[in-house]
Amino acid sequence: MVLQHVWGLFTNPRKEWEAIRDDECTIGKCYAAHVLILAAIPAISGFIGTTQFGWSIGAGDPVRLSTQSAGLIAVLYYLAMLVGVFSMGWMIQWMAGTYGAKPMLSQSVVLAAYTATPLFLIGLMELYPVLWLNMVVGIPALAYTVYLLYTGVPVMMGISEDRGFLFSSAVLAVGLVAFVALLAATALLWGMGLEPTFTR
Fold first, then answer.
1. How far does CA 155 lie from the centroid of its chain?
2. I want to staple 120 with a disulfide (CB 3.0 to 4.6 A). Which of 12, 38, 113, 139 is the partner?
3. Is 82 helix (H, G, I), strand (E, B) or coil?
4. Distance from C-alpha of 77 to C-alpha of 61, rounded to nearest angstrom
5. pTM of the entire structure?
6. pLDDT of residue 24
7. Which residues touch 35 (CB under 8 Å, ≥6 apart)?
8. Whole-number Å distance between alpha carbons of 172 and 180
């Protein structure tokens, strides 16, 4: 069933992680039923928000992106999320042996995919790109994502809570490094003349 585990991750995450583990979902099924759908939320919301509403800096008029520029960014944003989920899954599997776990790649990708659920859903806030509002709502969503990671790793990897805590911390560190690398790559691309086109 499409998106069948989303509600449970917010109401009873520990029990839902057990259900996700028992589903033995393949990478393809996980992407088709979860990632491809939810990753579209921030990409589409960002496109609408930056072209229709824009954002204000100080007391000036709203700044918007051109439709072509915002469309290209939305597509790249979507692809980056799809690749990011798989990459984090691959990194989880690669690190697993250090913590006494031997997951299949599919288990690791499923863990990464469902852990990212709050970040996908909070992408709705990009419909109206107001920095302070997005921060107020985004920080709790980020915190809950971290909570899902720490509750999900022991269940999905079949390891103790203590090892799960250390493993989760390592995964979180890798995720932060990947995020900083993505920001740096974006800045480099903009510096090379691939910056977005703005309109008033």
1. 20
2. 38
3. helix
4. 26
5. 0.91
6. 85
7. 81, 82, 85, 113
8. 12
Dihedral of CA 167/168/169/171: which sign? positive
Q: What is the C-alpha to C-alpha distance for residues 75 and 124, in angstroms, rounded to an integer?
A: 16
Structure tokens at 103: 């997951």
Q: What does the chain come to in residues?
A: 200
Q: What are the two backbone dihedrals, phi and then psi, of residue 189, each rounded to the nearest 5 degrees?
A: -65, -40
Other Cβ atoms closer than 10 A to 15? 12
Residue 10: the pLDDT is 94
- What is residue 48's predicted lDDT score, i.e. its pLDDT? 94
Cβ within 8 Å of residue 91, ≥6 positions away: 171, 174
**DSSP 8-state class, residue 100:** T
The model's pLDDT over 82-92, given as tens digits with 9 standing for 90+, comes to 999 999 999 99
- For residue 59, give both structure tokens: 């007391």
**Quick one: pLDDT at residue 200?**
64
Six token digits for residue 23 = 């589903």
User: What is the Cα–Cα distance from 146 to 143, expressed in whole angstroms?
Assistant: 5
Q: Alpha-carbon distance 21 to 191, whole Å?
A: 44
